[in-house]
Amino acid sequence: MMHYLAQVDAGTIERKLAELQALHPGLGICALLPETEKAKVPVLQAACAQYKVPLVGAIFPALVRDGQFLTNGLWLLCFEQMPYFALYDNLPAETEEAESAAEKIASDVRAQIDHVPDLTLFMLFDAMVPNIGTLLDTLYLHLANRVHYAGANAGSETFQPMPCLFDSSRTVQNGLLLMLLTQHKGAILEHGYHTNPHTSYATSTKGNCISQIDWRPAFEVYRELVREHFGEEVTAENFYQYGVHFPFGIVRANHHVVVRIPVMLAEDGSLFCVGEVPANSVLTLLKAPTVRTVETLHNLHEGLKKLNGDVAGAELLLFYCAGRRLHLGAAMATTELEAFSGLTHAGQVAGALSLGEIGGSTVQGYPLFHNATLVASRW
Questions:
Q1: 4-13, pLDDT tens digit by residue?
Q2: What is the domain range of residue 238?
Q3: Where are the alpha helices (DSSP H) in the chain?
Q4: Same structural domain for residues 233 and 177?
Q5: Same structural domain for residues 231 and 359?
Q6: Which of 82, 297, 325, 350 could form a disulfide with 333 if both were Cys (CB 3.0 to 4.6 A apart)?
Q7: Predicted confidence (pLDDT) per residue in 58-102, tens digit
Q8: Can you give the pTM of this predicted structure?
Q9: 3-state SS class at 204
Q10: How far is residue 43's CA from residue 45's CA, in Å, rounded to a whole number?
């Protein structure tokens, strides 16, 4: 059940909770809010506490509703019975400590999943967590294919720290909210980028920071690649305009491309991306106009049908990358949303504009952290 509330005030929320709880006494809520409504989280928490409704949720740059991006309102993603969930804050940044934290999280999850089929580990991270890839690697090491993997990053499109994950009583940052969705077959993730044949190597990296490419300062090489392949001149002054239009692709051994959008430039020429870039990654440079929208949406639709059967009339959850919207432009991104709704004939599409997306490399596959994608599932 998905319910959109245009007004985020105590009266509206309480009336909706009362209506839903009368139908489903075990009601639980996962709430999605846009950043402009972040001050309303305590109002939502108080209303849920009044009705004793379990609550989790996250704050995103904007919401997705059918064919629109919205900066007002509230999505209530409802459960007839609240599933297992956990909210972790202040995840460590250093690799060894991050792996230990992920082992603890995996242990908590493993205690809930024995002999239960068709479970999806649905994860909402704070986008400021710098080592999501390491955390996913460790989770997979301990959980393997006993769960499907899906999720997205919450937070501010300015990439400034902000408490963006919450439950009934807390609002936290630098954390992870996870839920175990039962009788759920996972998500489909697509970006539609095709690779540039020229490749380089990320020879010095730490977390989401690339210091050197081919043993030279990262920004120096990046400028040369953009000039050589796309004829544009990127400078320190215009980097924030251009960077999103020319993301990196990490080329994996199976030729699958994982997109990494550079979002910050350091004084020493290091580039900060949304998501980790492992040392010695094979990099290729991508360009926005090479995105194949029709192919992307076709693959999403076919993947959803393969997992769930016909999704016409179904409620679908969709996360759309903010970086993709930036470099495609608002009009084209909205056209993609509208086309997705039309192609799937969904009864309702709910979701958010996200700051990175999580999905498997194949059905029941290894979880990867992506940029510039759409990730969709049946709710």
A1: 999 999 999 9
A2: 200-287
A3: 10-23, 41-51, 95-113, 132-143, 218-230, 239-242, 293-308, 322-328, 330-344
A4: no
A5: no
A6: 325
A7: 999 999 999 999 999 999 999 999 999 999 999 998 878 888 999
A8: 0.86
A9: strand
A10: 5
